[in-house]
Amino acid sequence: YEYFNAVLINEDVELGGKFVLQPNDHFNNRSVNLSLSVVQVPTNMYNKDSAIVNGVYWSEALNKVFVDNFERDPSLIWQYFGSAKGFFRQYPGIKWKPDDHGVIAFDCRNRKWYIQAATSPKDVVILVDVSGSMKGLRLTIARQTVSSILDTLGDDDFFNIIAYNEELHYVEPCLNGTLVQADVTNKDHFREHLDKLFAQGIGMLDIALTEAFNLLSDFNKTGRGSECSQAIMLVTDGAVDTYDTIFEKYNWPERKVRIFPYLIGRESAFADNLKWMACANKGYFTQISTLADVQENVMEYLHVLSRPKVIDQEHDTVWTEAYIDSTSDDGQSPVLMTTVAMPVFSTKNETRNRGILLGVVGTDVPVSELLKTIPKYKLGIHGYAFAITNNGYILTHPDLRPLYGDGKKRRKPNYSSVDLSEVEWEDKDDTLRNAMVNRKTGTFSMEVTKSVDKGKRVLVLHNDYYYTDIKGTPFSLGVALSRGHGKYFFRGNVTVEEGLHDLEHPDVALADEWTYCNTDEHPKHRYLSQIEAIKMYLSDKELIQEVLFDAVVTAPLEAYWTSLVLNKSEKYLCYLNSLSYFSDANNTAAHKGSSVYKLVSIYRNSDKGVEIAYLGTRTGLSRINLFVVPDELTNLDFLTAEDKEGVFNADHFPLWYKRAAEQVPGTFIYSLPFNSGSENRSVVLASTAIQLLDERKSPIAAVFVVTSQATCSEAATVKYTKPYNSGQA
Fold first, then answer.
1. Which of 34, 52, 496, 697 has its CA 20 to 30 A from that of 106?
2. Which residue numbers delimit the VWFA domain (predicted)?
3. 13: exposed, middle or buried (C-beta count within 10 Å: 0-12, 13-18, 19+)?
4. How far apart are CA 284 and CA 232, in angstroms?
């Protein structure tokens, strides 16, 4: 039987058949095959082993399932099946590339999504024999075995490591008599201490087993552990007894603690005793003779721990914390993902009672897709949504920055286990964090300082937090609203014809990352522009109505800017209350009970001065007017996707919008660069907010922000006049 091997496809070798690949922008422009999946086999496994080939053969039926899933839900990306035998079937098919040494270290059974779906949370005590007989290669293999066991533990698990000879030696003495969470930091810390182990003396296994049982029992009583599975991992080169008296005292008849012995070395003299311990305590025995045997043999215990779930047919759905997509290579921008997965069981009558796990099936969900479901326009200028796991780790948060370096493509250490308390640090008592970890629903308020402009500026805000759990997931969702922003909306009625007419102006743009219409349900609609989608999905949807209103209201300003360009005016004065849509002859707003602030006076030199004027509204609508040709702009990245802080994104408003909205409407915010591009030229951004007032004279929303970018030198200056004030600055 031949199959498409992910590493060998399109090469003139066995399992390297012709496999059509085409670039696809939905998959980060990687070359993929949307009709077939491929199979990846770890380098340390034989790719034509009978168990591998048999599994690949029957799992080929997943091709149709994957294709049907993608046709039904085009927002899906990677779908895959990780087999208990070690192979990994991935859709759509792509070509995998080995590292510089010709190795692909990826083993699906080591991934968090596989381990979480296959097993339940567990408390584990690892006993390591450091008696004299473990010297040399055996101790090296033992260290590697323990390290591989740690790889299979996740954030929902707890563990400790005890070395033993005549005495007990906790690998980390400071954590004597307790278990610790198996997060990345703790596991790395214990790995460092493994190198300090040395072999001498006589191994007293009875003392070690007694300590392990007492430790698991005492920790379970505290209620701080997994409160689920418990296991003792025994790494040794032999046992002179079966120690049935100890098991009878601490573990029988319930057998709540499973025993997993790992016999190190080629000798089998003591194998029978260790096998008996495993069988008498619902465990599994393996022998590890070389370093190459370690990984495959360590995996066996996962299949045993999965048996209760298999027998009870518990198809639990699990979600992982955020991580960087491993397929984001070849110079492409890394993508932050979460995985949803569930176990796959054998349903044959003859195997059902044996609890055979076939593997785990899963799919990736980009965090950016989750952000699209959040109505940013409702959260206000400084508002944001965030989500954390049951361990307090951030799934998504505007201040989560997992990447660094040139081009932001290098991963920070432990980027996937950043705690909420590290970004919402003003919550000194962890009130918000603890409530969300405990999956409660409630509110919380505190004063916060938020850095903007890449940390160069700070805003002091008072945030109200609202939080609840997300059913069917380990996540809790929080929303932060800044007081004074986001509570009220200004809504007006315009006809669809009016709105579309002004919305289709070439200088109008909408926030790319905002969801105005859900086009994912129809594959052909996914490539529509925002405005095209709005035309197709016109309905009573709130955001669409508001963006149409904004398009009509701001159209006169666009016309005024255009007239300035055409007339090449030396001096222009713009008052927003001159806009006919807002004002009548008595200088009162056309909408009942509303008034507006006057705007801005700018004096410009005929050669130098204002380069660009632009406006943004709370609905993500932008109007941009150039006073110079594009190539003459001082900052070519400004208002483009390259300027992350200067455009409407999924999780924030532009920097110029946020800063202006914090000031009294009609006054100006000037932004001067910290490092100008040349000695004689600098870019100045002048922004002002226009605030609508209702009949109670209380602010409804900082709806519009108008800003201009000017190039200033000795021959050209930008000035402004405050509304209702003759003073100049």
1. 34
2. 123-305
3. exposed
4. 11
**Cβ distance 612 to 586 under 8 Å?**
no
- 709: part of which helix (H) or strand (E)? strand 699-712
> Among 385, 357, 349, 381, which residue's Cα sits nearest to residue 370?
385
Task: Give me the phi and psi of 532, to 5 degrees please.
Answer: -60, -40
- DSSP conformation letters of 113-160: HHHHHHS--EEEEEEEE-SGGGTTHHHHHHHHHHHHHHHT--TT-EEE
Which of 150, 240, 142, 162 is CA-nearest to residue 186? 150
Alpha-carbon span 116 to 360, nearest angstrom? 10
Residue 411 CB partners (closer than 8 Å, separation 6+):
324, 334, 402, 403
- Please say whether the beta carbons of 463 and 443 come within 8 A: no
Element (H, E) at 535: helix 530-536
**Rounded to the nearest 5 degrees, what angle is found at the Cα of 160, between the Cα atoms of 156 and 166?**
160
The per-residue pLDDT for 570 is 45
CA 195 to chain CA centroid, Å, is 34
- Is residue 264 within 8 A of residue 293, CB to CB? The reply is no
Interatomic CA distance for residues 698 and 694, integer angstroms: 6
Q: What is the pLDDT of residue 711?
A: 52
Per-residue confidence (pLDDT) for residue 87, from 0 to 100: 96
Residue type, 250: Y
pLDDT at residue number 584? 40
Residue with tokens 């980027």: 415
CA 64 to chain centroid: 29
Of 514, 463, 713, the residue nearest 619 (C-alpha): 514
Confidence at residue 172, expressed as pLDDT on a 0 to 100 scale? 95
- List the domains of the chain with CATH numbers: 22-108+315-365 (3.30.450), 120-293 (3.40.50.410), 374-482 (3.30.450), 556-583+591-717 (3.30.450)
Give the pair of three-digit tokens for residue 310.
């298999």
Q: Write down the pLDDT at residue 694.
A: 44
The amino acid present at 718, given as its one-letter code, is: V
pLDDT of residue 579: 41
| Side chain identity at residue 147, one-letter code | S
Q: What is the 3-state secondary structure (H, E, C) of 416-453?
A: HHCEHHHCCCCCCCCHHHHHHHCCCCEEEEEEEEEEEC
Please give the backbone phi and psi of residue 609, each rounded to the nearest 5 degrees, phi first: 130, -135
- Closest by Cα among 700, 718, 701 to 709: 718
Give me the amino acid identity at 137: L
What are the φ/ψ torsions at residue 576 (nearest 5 degrees)? Answer: -65, -25
Residues 729 and 718: their CA atoms lie apart, in Å, by: 9
Q: Which two tokens stand for residue 136?
A: 């040399």
Contact 124, 226 (CB under 8 A): no
The pTM score is: 0.78
Token code pair at residue 344: 């796959």
CA dist 28 and 329 (Å) reads 10
Q: What is the dihedral of CA 117, 120, 125, 126, to 10 degrees?
A: -30
pLDDT on residue 719: 36
Low-confidence ranges of the chain (pLDDT < 70): 326-334, 350-353, 405-409, 484-491, 518-527, 536-540, 567-609, 673-686, 688-729
The pLDDT, as a whole number, for residue 160 is 98
Q: Are 706 and 651 in contact (CB under 8 A)?
A: no
- The Cα 345–Cα 355 span in angstroms is 8
